[in-house]
Design a protein that fits this description.
α11 (274-295) packs parallel to α16. This protein has four domains: 11-147, 3-Layer(aba) Sandwich (Glutaredoxin); 180-327 and 344-431, no CATH class; 433-619, Glycosyltransferase, CATH 1.50.10; 637-699. It has 26 helices and 24 strands. The strands form eight sheets. The protein has a five-stranded mixed beta sheet with strand order 1-3-2-4-5, sandwiched between helices. A hairpin with a 7-residue loop joins β6 (259-260) and β7 (268-269). It starts with 10 loop residues before the first helix and ends with a helix. It is an alpha+beta fold.
Length: 702
């Protein structure tokens, strides 16, 4: 036993270092060993915060009998999906194609050249309903390899061909933009989101994932489509309220879990991911601004609901930033290290055993004495308790409605008492790896939230993080970005994906619009220049500078860029957003109009597919759709002068929440407020208030 994982930088790999399974890290050498031995490869793909990864680990990989079987018949490879996202994406495509579903842990059996012939996710130690045991799977795969090799190889060839076709479709979608500019029909997007909103919020049944990026697009339809109705606003508010009131939101400690397992958002899957919380930070900051603006002209009942949504968003954002700093900030002043960790584990210790949600749930013995002090004050329908099915006797806490003014102090005190109770428990493990792209998303969100909500300290936090990530992850000689770092040391042999470059560039470009420091605009340009080299032979963007032989054998192409948003924004959506924010900054600087127009045309081609797909799958192209709509709109940036500081701030905040850049402001005493909307190098007649600006944006034909 080589125990190759003992000194791995990845925490997920180290979690398996003690096992008798002869694990290899992902490498060409492991596949070469499989070819020498004439055995299949078994890839086990997961991540440190994954509950079911832990379950399969102690049920099966800790079992010495199973370990011997694996070692005898396979070359086992353990993959941290966050360290190797394209490996994960490639084999997830194979798993979904074979089984119709995906998830982690992912268990893949492949030929020594990397092509999959059998795949699944979690396998139990013993047969369960229609799911075979892991031992049965191992035996069946070995038997097929030994007795029916030709069929195995044929299956692998057919699957690889199918995946090649799937990957090529991304390129076909991007080529749609080469045939001419496509408009964005906001009404069709609005109707889709309105009609597909579930009664309990979200666009699907359980499990309930927060449709973060889609809700950003939904807000644009409600605010900017002149034909939008109160019915659409009600649908949007329903989902936002479910996210804020339900157990996805950690009311006691702040932050948000990855998803809820039930229809009513009452029991979360307890892991907390940086990218989820970054996306929700931006969404809820926008919500705090846009809900307040919406309330100013809404019917009375909906205006009250919008103001409640605004207040709840403000509280959630404050607690979210506090959670991020307290739980996920990785800082070491001696190393100038100041960035954010990838995740918090779903599991933690209780009575010597790892249990999902143990750090977050409460039993009746703990709850009753505390809740009894607030029962009369809160009354019916305020608090919701939901028992965790896999942890009987332990409950999640959420809200059935917003706290009223007289209840808010009591609610905050209740949360503080429960937080003190939690503080006595073992904390969930933190995966302290720093992912460049995820930190880029948070840099953007912190800077954006700070600008919208008048929190300069959050902008400073974003700047400090940006400096640290740049210093650790970017090779100033080559311009290469390392995807991950561990304890302040970059994994230099693991270059970032297009999404990493774009997300970090987006964070820098957002800072450039808020700071006079030229390093942010220059940093964004540097990252985008390198990202612009990620193209195939036809000039279309790809996800990576190159794929290894195994991934090429599985996908069949060089890695056409991902165009659909999932839990993270698509790479093309991020690339377009970052490029557009940088282009807005160039417009503010007064770059030649012809040069700016050429740059904007290129971005328009990148997101043209969103206009075509908007009526069918807007939730999956939301980031590209927003960029396309911002570019096609009547204004790209504003010049603001005159008025009071409060009037200028109101206009500036609304503009930024709607994706408009704001130029240098002129505070001229005695003059009325002038908001000058500009598109490329041409400016329209000025309007005199934030509400007039919104009216102009709503009624202009796009």
């Amino acid at each position: 036993m080589a125990h190759r994982l003992e000194h791995a930088a990845s925490q997920y790999l180290r979690q398996h270092a003690h096992q008798d399974v002869d694990w290899w890290p992902y490498s060409a050498q492991a596949f070469a060993i499989a070819a020498e031995r004439d055995v299949p490869v078994m890839l086990s793909i997961g991540y440190a915060a994954c509950h079911w990864c832990h379950v399969m680990s102690y049920e099966s990989f800790d079992d010495p009998v199973i370990a011997r079987k694996i070692n005898e018949h396979f070359v086992p490879i353990k993959v941290d999906r966050e360290e190797h996202p394209l490996v994960d994406e490639t084999y997830m495509m194979a798993t979904q194609a074979m089984t119709g579903a995906g998830g982690w842990p992912m268990t893949v059996f492949a030929l020594p050249d990397g092509r999959t012939f059998q795949a699944g996710t979690y396998y139990p130690a013993h047969p369960r309903q229609n799911t075979p045991s892991f031992t049965q799977v191992l035996d069946a795969v070995h038997e097929a390899w030994a007795q029916r090799r030709a069929q195995v190889e044929e299956q692998a060839a057919l699957l690889a061909s199918h995946l090649s076709e799937l990957t090529a479709r991304n390129g076909q979608l991007l080529r749609l933009g080469l045939s001419g500019e496509q408009g964005v029909d906001l009404s069709a997007v609005r109707d889709y989101f309105t009609d597909h909103t579930a009664e309990t919020g979200g666009f699907s049944t359980a499990p309930k994932f927060p449709p973060t990026w889609a809700l950003g697009a939904f807000w644009r339809t409600v605010m900017l489509d002149p034909s939008s109705t109160t019915h659409s606003a009600e649908a949007l508010f329903t989902t936002l309220e479910s996210i804020l009131l339900g157990a996805l939101h950690d009311h006691v400690g702040g932050g948000f879990a990855r998803y809820c397992v039930d229809e009513h958002w009452s029991v979360p899957h307890f892991e907390k991911m940086l990218y989820d919380n970054a996306g929700l930070l931006k969404l809820l900051s926008d919500t705090a601004v846009l809900a307040g603006q919406y309330a100013s002209s809404a019917p009375p009942a909906l205006a009250v609901r919008a103001q409640q949504l605004r207040a709840a968003s403000l509280r959630a954002v404050e607690k979210l930033v506090a959670f991020l700093e307290r739980e996920l900030l990785v800082a070491d002043p001696e190393q100038s290290l100041h960035a954010f960790a990838a995740s918090l584990d779903a599991d933690s210790l209780r009575a010597g055993k790892l249990i999902e949600g143990a750090a977050y749930t409460f039993n009746r013995e703990e709850l009753n004495p505390i809740l009894s002090r607030y029962t009369e004050q809160f009354g019916n329908g305020f608090l919701r308790l939901a028992q965790v099915a896999e942890d009987p006797g332990h409950y999640c806490l959420s809200l059935g409605r917003y706290p009223m003014a007289g209840e808010l102090a009591g609610w905050e005190q209740l949360c503080e008492e429960l937080a003190q109770l939690r503080a006595q428990r073992a904390r969930p493990s933190r995966d302290a790896k720093v992912v460049a792209g995820w930190n880029g998303l948070l840099i953007e969100a912190l800077a954006h939230a700070g600008a919208l909500l008048g929190k300069p300290r959050w902008i400073e936090l974003a700047e400090r993080t940006a400096r640290s990530v740049y210093e650790v992850h970017v090779d100033t000689q080559t311009g290469r970005l390392a995807r991950v770092s561990f304890a302040g040391r970059a994994a230099e042999d693991n270059e970032g994906t297009l999404g990493d470059y774009a997300a970090l560039a987006l964070g820098f470009a957002t800072l450039a619009q808020l700071s006079e420091d030229p390093q942010w605009a220059e940093g964004a340009r540097q990252l985008l220049d390198r990202a612009g080299e990620f193209v195939d032979d036809t000039g279309l963007p790809v996800d990576a500078a190159g794929l290894d032989h195994q991934l090429q054998a599985q996908r069949g192409v060089a890695g056409a860029v991902s165009v659909l948003d999932e839990a993270e924004p698509s790479a093309i959506g991020l690339y377009a957003r970052a490029s557009w924010r940088a282009a807005q900054q160039d417009l503010l600087r007064g770059d030649p109009e012809e040069q700016a127009a050429d740059r904007i045309e290129r971005i328009t081609h990148l997101v043209a597919h969103a206009g075509i797909l908007a009526a069918q799958v807007p939730a999956q192209v939301a980031n590209s759709l927003i960029v396309a709509h911002e570019i096609a709109g009547p204004a790209h940036y504003l010049n603001i002068s005159g008025g009071t500081a409060e009037q200028r701030e109101q206009a500036r905040v609304l503009a930024r929440a709607l994706g408009l850049a704001v130029g240098g402001e002129k505070a001229t005493d005695g003059e009325e407020l002038r908001i000058e909307p500009c598109r490329l190098g041409s400016c329209r007649p000025a309007v005199g208030s934030a509400s007039e600006l919104l009216a102009m944006l709503r009624h202009e034909k796009l």
